[in-house]
Design brief:
The protein is an all-alpha fold. The chain contains 10 helices and no strands.
Length: 253
């Protein structure tokens, strides 16, 4: 019961954070889950919580969603699901932490070393399709992919509400596909009671509502600056933890 309480508290805190920044909460929640339950259970709980959190965030900010990006994004996401279905892969916990921690740094390095990325525009069908493929693949492998998704918005002219709302609709889709992959294709069997899923999802909606309210009080320039540095700080800690766990496992083997 103490573990379940810890997870519920974590769900609320991380969904508040995601409601403000549009990301980061999913990374932290995955790190907590992967350290307390199995990879399969972590993916299922994380998928249910994040699909609900992002879905409710999309609803709360629905007038800001840029719907034109969705069709092409769905095509890319579908290709990612098809590819993973052929592999039937369940990653190692340490690998999940390393991938989640490396994604923000990878996105930052790509943005600085590849000037062509400045031309990425989510309003273009090709970019939206590529985004769906890359981001959904990261979600299926690592559970969370917000920082990688952020790369496609680095030079966007969208304001903070449009960015958070548009990310929410695509992330909702990705987490639903993650539930399909681990729940139906991989065939995860975990002894997680239904009431716990329900409580976690209700908590996610509450945390998201608080976060989106706080978003109204943040200026656009502060939003971009704070979110960028916070993501890198969290990513670094997860990367170190994942590398430590992987090294420890190999030394004990």
């Amino acid at each position: 019961m103490s573990l379940q309480i810890l997870i519920i508290i974590s769900v609320f805190a991380t969904t508040v954070l995601s409601g403000i920044l549009g990301m980061a909460g999913g990374m932290i929640l995955m790190a907590i889950l992967i350290s307390t339950v199995s990879v399969s259970a972590a993916m299922m709980i994380h998928g249910a919580v994040q699909a609900t959190s992002n879905g409710s965030r999309c609803w709360f900010l629905r007038r800001h969603v840029q719907w034109q990006i969705l069709p092409a994004y769905v095509v890319g996401a579908g290709l990612a699901l098809a590819g993973f279905s052929l592999m039937n892969l369940v990653p190692d916990p340490a690998v999940v932490l390393i991938v989640v921690g490396a994604l923000p740094w990878l996105a930052r390095l790509l943005a600085s070393s590849r000037p062509g990325l400045n031309a990425l525009d989510m309003n273009r069908r090709g970019t939206a399709c590529l985004c769906g493929l890359v981001v959904t693949s990261a979600q299926l492998l690592a559970g969370a992919s917000g920082p990688l998704l952020d790369m496609f918005y680095l030079n966007s002219t969208l304001n903070r509400h449009q960015i958070v709302a548009s990310k929410a609709i695509t992330q909702t889709l990705g987490h639903l596909l993650k539930l399909v992959y681990y729940g139906l294709i991989v065939g995860v069997v975990e002894d997680i009671p239904g009431w716990f899923y329900l409580l976690a999802m209700v908590t996610a909606v509450g945390g998201t509502r608080v976060g989106t309210r706080l978003l109204d009080r943040i200026a656009d320039h502060a939003f971009r600056k704070v979110s960028g540095w916070m993501i890198l700080a969290i990513a670094t800690s997860l990367l170190i933890k994942g590398l430590y766990d992987l090294l420890k496992t190999n030394l004990l083997a």
